[in-house]
Specification:
The structure is a homodimer. By secondary structure, chain A is α+β, with helices and mostly antiparallel strands. Chain A has 2 domains: 5-49, no CATH class; 81-283, Protocatechuate 3,4-Dioxygenase, subunit A. Chain A has helices spanning 14-20, 28-48, 52-68, 75-82, 85-93, 204-211; strands spanning 131-140, 150-155, 176-180, 186-192, 197-198, 217-218, 221-227, 234-239, 262-264, 275-278, 281-283. In chain A, strands 1, 4, 9, 10 and 11 form a 5-stranded mixed sheet that branches. In chain A, helix 1 (14-20) packs antiparallel against helix 2 (28-48). Chain A is globular, with a radius of gyration of 23 Å. The first copy, chain A, starts with 13 loop residues before the first helix and ends with a strand. The interface between A and B is large, with 78 and 78 residues.
Chain lengths: 286, 286
């Protein structure tokens, strides 16, 4: 009779037993990822000495996150965001030469077909908020201008809401637009100073944040996607430097290099701008 | 100005940054568990060098598990089961003196109010299957009989289905019953030889098992919960020794010590039993 006891459960080598069960035809990358996650999961359960009641609370919590998800709400992405996992995955996959603009989280409020504008246009369609001029250049790592680059910008208004969160209150496509850099790599547009805002916190992730003594606020920011042929796509923000949540962004999206110098404009500017931001993006080659 | 850069995201110490965000009022045990899980989760993501696409597939998978859950289906428990986590949690919480009966998974088919029977009763209500006599004693670690112990048994029939899975096909409460040990600690009942059966595999967990080259079958078994005043509750199985899935139970429920000697009865027994199992349970004190 074959000795099969090696295959029976043994708490001391539980992860190895589970992983040994995978068949020979398993996709090698799936095998690798599963092996790593099962090993760390078992190590965590063992280190925490999770009780049966705690395990059940965990099961119920993970279930509730899944059940909160809908076509317009991805609570698992939110969970990943507040655990810093989204930022970690991004960092692992976007290591760029020194001086390149860094990535940060995409967030759920990007809209695929924002209006295209000429440089100098105002993306604030309702005139609310403190007018802000954002301008700069897009260059490569050697400082050479990148012309024809696409600058996709979107942001919350001065109350901390995106247009898609306030249909009927904000005009559609408010505070969104796509610009194209000129021959010298320059871009520019008018907008408003954004305000911080909470991530959706009426679900299980919000409950967890409360239990952990964490607030749900994201530091005030503008979103950007920069794309240009031959360069790596950049998904990033610029942050205002005086936001009270800068050092405690709920999804860990802030990086030192993404904090912009948003400064008061001289008084009575002809264009009415109260704030100025000069901001250059540096693209890394593919 | 305060240096707040320590709080910004840094892929090299991402878990520490996330964990440092917890407030001072956080429940100490929650803090401990979260700290451990966040650390292992980040370590796993980093070790696997998870790509953005893989991360998204993970998000979608975890979401689908949650959305499969309903009042009568707990897909996250199933996920925990097939990853060996349920068995690990049980093992961590039920370490007993040498010689005590070991625990295994509870499973989803226990029913709270099964009928109470006198020893010697037959729990097979439809007469189908190969009749089996199960009998033995319940003792403490010193071999002293435990009288008045409750022996709650439930099992699948010879087609691998529980009564609750086949309403209208099997009589209600088929192959379930609660017995009480006699003064000498003995119990006994008639039943049928159980068959192996698949865990529900029409959801995301079943899909994962298929991708991993794993079948969904549980080795054939009878479930027991043994309870007696002054002793630790035992949630366990006994397994038939010749089941083809004994060494590859889908939820890792098999332990060497739980494999019973299910033997053929002598021919033409007066009680009609074709199979005999002698099985003693040993209870550990509270």
């Amino acid at each position: 009779m074959i000795d099969t006891t090696a295959a029976y459960f043994d708490a001391g080598r539980s992860a190895a037993i589970v992983n040994a069960r995978m068949g020979p035809e398993t996709d090698p990358r799936l095998r690798e990822v599963m092996t790593i996650f099962v090993r760390h999961l078992h190590a965590a359960v063992r280190e925490a000495r999770l009780t049966g009641e705690e395990w059940m609370r965990g099961i119920e919590f993970l279930t509730a996150i899944g059940q909160m998800c809908s076509d317009w709400r991805q609570e698992y992405v939110l969970f990943s965001d507040v655990l810093g996992v989204s930022m970690l995955v991004d960092a692992l996959n976007h290591q760029r030469p020194e001086g390149s603009t860094e990535n940060t989280v995409l967030g759920p409020f990007h809209v695929a077909k924002a209006p295209r504008y000429a440089n100098g246009a105002n993306i604030c369609l309702d005139g609310k908020g403190e007018k802000m001029l954002v301008r700069g250049r897009i260059t490569d790592n050697a400082g050479r201008p990148v012309s024809g680059a696409s600058v996709d910008v979107w942001q919350a208004n001065d109350n901390g809401f995106y247009d898609v969160q306030q249909p009927g209150v904000q005009p559609a496509m408010n505070l969104r637009g796509i610009f194209t850099t000129d021959a010298d790599g320059s871009y520019g547009f008018y907008s408003v100073r954004p305000r911080f805002y909470p991530i959706p916190d009426d679900g299980p992730v919000g409950k967890l944040l409360a239990m952990l003594g964490r607030h749900p606020n994201r530091a005030a920011h503008l979103h950007f996607i920069i794309e240009a042929k031959g360069y790596e796509r950049v998904v990033t923000h610029i942050f205002t430097p005086d936001c009270p949540y800068l050092a405690e962004d709920a999804v860990f999206g802030v990086k030192q290099s993404l904090i912009a110098d948003v400064r008061r404009a001289e008084e009575n500017r002809e264009d009415g701008a109260l704030w100025l931001v000069d901001w250059d993006f540096v693209l890394a080659p593919h």
